[in-house]
Amino acid sequence: MYDEVELDEGGVGKMQAGFSRTWQIWMDKAAPHTAPRWAATVFIMLAYCLRVYLINGWYIITYGLGIYALNLLIGFLSPATDPETEGPTLPTSKDDEFRPFVRRLPEFKFWRAFCVAFCMTFFSLFNIPVFWPILLMYFFALFFLTMKRQIKHMIKYKYVPFSFGKAKYKGKEGEGGSRSAE
To answer: Which ranges does the record mark as transmembrane (predicted)?
Structure first.
């Protein structure tokens, strides 16, 4: 009987490892497709918000999701190597080599959080009655204090977590940098 328990735990471990591998394969396939990834992220978030709005409840789940999403947002806006602890890796002067911003966290983690919270809204066990305006005020206070700290960190180490495409440089008129039609 003890062997059966070990087999069951091993089977669950193998099933979890298989699921993790499959999940990672799909995430690797989705990585180059930026616009569809963001569209899926927005869709999942809107679906959750619409569900909570229509069923008018599950505020504790939404509050927990908000706190977790705020934690993920900080990781999403932070570089993979923190200049505060590992030294500056981002350019600090115009002569430094450019290294692109690498996020500590991709948006895939948001998907999982919103999907789990969405599934939890189907169980009345998680619908704990609370006075939601207090939770909302506390969340906004936490959000603004956290983002203030993160923005100060971004300003101090001079990094921007968003890129808007490849920079295009224009040469001077008389030096062959650009041709004009004559």
So the answer is: 35-54, 61-80, 111-144
